[in-house]
Amino acid sequence: MIVADASMIGETLADAEDRMAKAVEALRRELATVRTGRANPALVDHLKVDYYGTPTPLKQLASVMVPEARLLTIQPWDKGSLTAIEKAIQKSDLGLNPTNDGSLIRLAIPPLTEERRRELVRMVHKKVEEGRVAIRNIRRDAHSMLRDLLHDKEISEDQEHNAQEELQKVTDRFIAEADRVGQEKEEELLEV
Predict the structure, then answer these.
(1) What is the pTM of this model?
(2) Residues 49 and 79 in one domain
């Protein structure tokens, strides 16, 4: 006789949903670092600065502010880290030229060319597809766990079938969310 254990199904689905939400959030953070024509502190969030021989996240060394739509200012707490921060920005893939006035670094964000916009849109599409793949991999893992429960006769075939349908609905919802996040970023990039 099969012992119907709905809590195992619920745990599996809840775990999959939680992991999918984290995948979408990771996509959101990843897309925030894509440069648009507008200043955004998230542009420099991922930068690591060689601070006394230790790669340190920029946000641990300085405050980043947006005084104007196309300008970022970076105010280090330790003036000795100014040149290290400047070098990290120059070495990064941002393509921005920092200006250092001795106490503050200014990053002017130039408007994007049409070619660069299209290139960035392609990059956004690629990142969104990676997010979709991550979500589908989570679905595959949960699907496998449900099949194992069925194989071990811990749930019935009907329960497994219903759980698979629920899993697909959750997957579809998160893939739509990833697409929406990508669409918003694409619109932001194409805005002139």
Answers:
(1) 0.71
(2) yes
